[in-house]
Every structure is written in C-alpha cells, then in structure tokens.
Amino acid sequence: MIAIEPLSDALGARIKGIDLAQALDTATFGRIEEALHRHCFIMFHEQNLTAGQFHAFSRRWGRAEPHVIDTYHHPEIADILILSNVERDGKPTGLKDAGSYFHTDYSYLDVPARCTMLYALDMPTTGNGTTFANQTRAYDELPDAMKARLEGLIGRHHYGNRDDLDENSRTVASVLNEDQKKKVHWVRHAIARTHPHMGRTSLYSVSGSCFGIEGMDDAEAIALLDELKVHATQKKYLHTVDYRVGDVIVWDNAQLLHAAPLPDHHQARTLWRITVKEDSSVALA
Q1: Which of 10, 58, 69, 204 gets the highest tally of CB atoms within 10 A of its CB?
Q2: 98 Cβ neighbours under 8 A, 6+ residues apart
Q3: Is the torsion defined by CA of 70, 73, 79, 85 positive or negative?
Q4: 106 in a structural domain
C-alpha cells in the first residue's frame, strides 16, 4: 500500500510502497504526481533500477531533455546525465561539481524543466544531499508591495551562475566546451511565474541563471534579484536531504531552487539524472 510521509514543514515527502521498476497504473501515478505538486519534492527509498527502468519512469512525467553537456551522457540512454566524482584510467566518468549554487534546472531554455529526478548509485555516508528552497511559499510571504512590483517583470536567462563566472572555480556552472556554448542563448521567463499544473505563483529562478530583468538597467536588476534570492533562501524555506544508495528523488522545478553539495572527492559519489521539460504550450512567449 502506498504511503506518503511529509519530511518537513517547509517541503518534501517520502513515498513508501512503490517499486519504480514496475509499471505504475494511472491511479498510482496520479497520487505520486499530486504528492510532487503538494510537497515540491518526493523521495523513494530502496529502489533497484536499470537505466531503462529509470528512463521509463521519467517518461511518465513528460519528454526528457538531454543535458547540453553531452560529454557525460549515459552510453545507452542519452537522456541520462551521469553525475560522478569517480575517475577511471585517470579520466572522469561524470560531472563532479554540478549545480552547487541555488538554481533552477533548465531555466536557460525557452521551454524550462518540469521536474528533475536523481537515482543514487554510490554515495558517501554523510553530506551528500541536496538543499531545496520552497519558492511558492517564498512568493506567498512577500510583502504586497513587492508582489505588485514583480507583476509583469521578465527575467533574462542564460546558462551560467550569476554569482560566479570564473571557469576555474568549483562553484561556477559546469563549464561548456565551445560547441556546447553555441547551443545556449538568451531566453526570458517571468520572475513571478504561474505553476503550469497548479495555477499558484512562485518566484522563478531568482538565483542561478537569471542575469537581468527586461526594462531595467543591470545594476537595478541585479540588486532586485539579489534581494529576492536572500528572501527566497531563508532557512524557513529550506530542507536538505541526504541520499542513500537506491534512493530516487523527483523535484518540481517550477516551485524550487536547489543546490547540490560540493562533494569530497575522496569519497565516491555517483548518481544518474534525468530532467523532463514542461509542455511547450506553457512556455513564455
């Protein structure tokens, strides 16, 4: 029997009684989907999945989009990105320090991410998880004057970390090669964005890849974005979850910021990641 247990007051839920290696009937998937929207992220423990089974689960949510860094795609399924600090024959097997700053996946694309999922294959015993920030609650608790100020504002997004552009830094966005850089361009998304499935408003990607706001000079825009980032990442909106081998986690990019840990490279850490895009009909024109 399926059981859904909240993880904190801020966000997150654990779902028990599900084997993701098996096909999910419509009613069961509906409960899982509703839990994601209600709790912003959901976790499943003790899963044992092949790459194909993990990919099949992702397809229930929509169309996966391979990451622009195609260097570390899974050899059998390009939709799976390998996150790993493990080296073989002196060569990395995956991205080492990906996403260690607060950001929203694929906000640098015209059609952004609906959800991201990770499957933990090899994990350190501590300090290996992700910190999530509830952006729906953060928007709800803004002063009315700030909500009015944000109405109609459009953020300008590009691949990268607004707070760190040094390609030699561990907290820079994972560095693209020249061919990969040609695949990304400037896109636009509302700062206060309506959730495509729930109709509620959330702050959207105020940290990470949002570098400006249409109609504002850069200094004014960055000052506003930084003010929103400080508000949106207060402790009361956060929850950090560590992973165990066999965990699968799914998070709702329309409602969250998230930041990955900087792993200890002396302890093996490997996960598979799939990111599913929203339906193109909900993208901002």
Answers
A1: 204
A2: 83, 174, 260
A3: negative
A4: yes
**284 pLDDT above the threshold of 70:** no
Which tens digit of pLDDT belongs to each residue from 129-163? 899 999 999 999 999 999 999 999 999 999 999 99
Can you tell me the distance from the alpha carbon of 20 to that of 82, in angstroms, rounded to the nearest whole number?
Answer: 19
Q: How far apart are CA 73 and CA 44, in angstroms?
A: 23
Question: How many other CB atoms are there within 10 angstroms of residue 7's CB atom?
Answer: 16
* CATH number reported for the structural domain that contains residue 269 in this entry: 3.60.130.10
Domain that residue 205 falls in? 3-279
C-alpha dist (Å) from residue 103 to 56, 131, 226, 233, 256: 26, 11, 13, 11, 8
DSSP string across 230-280:
HHHT-GGGEEEE---TT-EEEEETTTEEEE-----TTS--EEEEEEEEPPG
DSSP lists the bridge partners of residue 147 as none
**Residue 257: strand pairing partners:** 133
* Residue 255: inside a domain: yes
3 state DSSP class of 128: coil
Is the pLDDT at 259 greater than 70? The verdict is: yes
β-pairing, 91-92 vs 113-122, is: unpaired
What is the pTM assigned to this prediction? 0.95
